[in-house]
User: What shape does this take?
Amino acid sequence: MKLLLLEDDTILSQTLCEILNQHGFDVTAVEKGQQAIDMTFENSYDIYLFDINLPDMNGIDLLKNLKEADDQTPTIFISANADIETIARGFDVGAEDYIKKPFMPEELLIRLNAKLSNKMIISCKDVRYNTLSGDIFIGGKKLYLSYAQFRLVDILFRNIGKAVEKDELLNVTEYHSDNALRVAINKIKTLLNIEIKNIRGVGYTIESC
Assistant: This one.
């Protein structure tokens, strides 16, 4: 799991990096808000861990700007600010959680894992797809797909509400023609009982669930 840590306290940042790395997180650590903005433009993360009082900007304003740019990455604030007004502002701009400093590392890990566990599951009607394990369930019953079928489900479910270009779908599967892809999409629609729309000249999309 990729995590972006924004913390200007060097010692705390190093400590958190060591603990998080030990528990399987791939951590990128920065000290300033502008550095965080640059990293979010260049990379994709599973979760953000942001301090609020920063040398160059306020962490709450940073998250507000990211949300306005349609960045929906789950975010946890870590801050010594314990006043209700600051906490409320943090949640108002879209934070998933707020941890007051000082805190125990175990508390942070519990909260991180809780947020990521929720993010791992993508649901559509009766279908539940665990993006971490790769398991697909329909009504509680596990579904077994071919590799190519699984790749189709994976990319379409990760982009629900967005159009996935036909060439991209062809590149990640073993299908080598438009007709083969069309047949495969129709089979997936039948197996999962969901609507996958063909957008002429573009590709395919699961519009909504």
Q: What stands out?
A: The chain has two domains: 2-120, 125-205.
